[in-house]
Every structure is written in structure tokens, then in C-alpha cells.
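Notebook entry, structure prediction.
Reason for the run: the old model in the group folder had no record of what sequence produced it. Starting over properly, with the input documented here first.
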Amino acid sequence: MPLWIDSHCHLDAPEFDADRRAVCDRARAAGVALLVIPAVEAAHFEGVRTLAHATGQVYALGLHPLYVHRQPADALDQLARALHQHRGDERLVAVGEIGLDGFVPGLDWATQERFYAAQLALARRMDLPVILHVRRSADALLKHLRRAGVRGGIAHAFNGSEQQAQMFIDLGFRLGFGGAMTFERASQIRRLAQILPAEALVLETDAPDIPPHWLYRTADERAQGLGSRNEPAELPRIAETLAALRGWTLEETAATTTANACAALPRLAPWLPA
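New structure, fully documented this time:
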């Protein structure tokens, strides 16, 4: 069976509270050997770390741009302390999820930039890669990355231009592709998945979010109680889309994206099965 890494999975999300262990079991049965669980708020740091250890996964610590407005005044200090305290924990693989969001209206851009720049500085100090939230913000993210000199990482759920993609790649980043790629109307994402260098691609679910097309529900369907929760066991089927776009076998797709994830987040490799 091919070996997969879900490079972005919010396993701590409340959507998984009822069956989290079963979700992990289904992922493992599908060949998903490892999940990267990124934190999004200071209050979640310890819970994410504990969950990763309890389930045999790995984790990242960071402050998500959508939530910086509601963080405590000492949130960045809490992150610095947590990164320092757990610097020897080999399951801590990155600083993330961090970044900038230009899509959601009403977010304070200056606050987002302040948190982002500070977290890049922490990542550089701790010599950790970063996991980036990129939504209508690629150019601004790149500007800060050029100044910060971090050791690369993953641009999660990438949906920028080919030129922006190449700029991230030139800075040592891999680009995350997931459920959005399975929609035929997502022509830009599918084109990028097809033409970018093979060594730039990693797979992710962003579970419970960004469901693939076979899980997607309209607003009316959701109102009727039909769920659209994504989960890491969907990753191999999502990978079939990438394989088709690239003309790869599933085995080639798994080997390539697993190697790329380990290159982006070097602490992953020891946790993979032999």
C-alpha cells in the first residue's frame, strides 16, 4: 500500500470530538501514515501537543491570522515559551499555522502583519520551518519571508499565480494541494498541480475543512443536516486527482509527495514506518 503524509490536518477541531480515534484508525487503514496537526491559537498549544503524542502524530505551534484579533496580549510570549520548552520534542516539526489573510473582510491587516513577522522571527530563532496560511496574501507573505530568512516550509492550500508559486519554491517552500484540486472548475489550482516542479508538491486535507468534490454540500444540503466534514482518510482519493493530472501512478505520487513533505519538514522522517 502506498504511504501518505497529510501535511495539514486540524485533528484537534471540535468536528472530530465524537470520533477522533476512529478518524485516526480510518486514516491509518487508508495508508495515511502521518498527520501534521497545526495549532491556531495560544489556548490550543498544549492540547495540540498532547493530541499529537497520544495519537502518534506530529504538530506545529502558531497563531493563525484569522484569530490574532482575539488572542491574549501575551500570545506571542506564550508561543515563544512553548517553542522553547518543547524545542527538544521531535514531534514538534514547524511553527504554524501562521500567515496573512486578505480574503475575510474586517480583519486588521497591521495586526496580522505584526503577528506574522514576530512568528517568522521565532521560527528563525528556533531553526524551524513554517506552515503558511496563504489567502489573497502571497505577495505580502513573500516580502516578509525574504527579510526573515526562515528555513522554508509549506505554503498550505496554495492558490496563487504560477509566478508566486515559483517565488515560494525559490525560498525553499513546498506547496500544499488538497480537496480544492478535485473540483474541475478549480482550473488554476489544477493547472499548477500539473505544471509545477514535482519536488514542490505536497498533499494535505486541511480536515475538517476544504472537502473534496465528493463530500461537498450546498448550503441547502447542509441546512438539511447533510455533513461535509473532510478527514485524513480521504487523502489517497484526493491523491488520485494529482496522479491523473501528472500522469503518475499512485505509488509514484505517494513516494514523491512523502519525500517532499519530509524535505519541507525534516522532523517528519523519523516518524514514518520503515
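Summary: Residues 109-126 form the longest helix (18 residues).
The old model has been moved to the deprecated folder.
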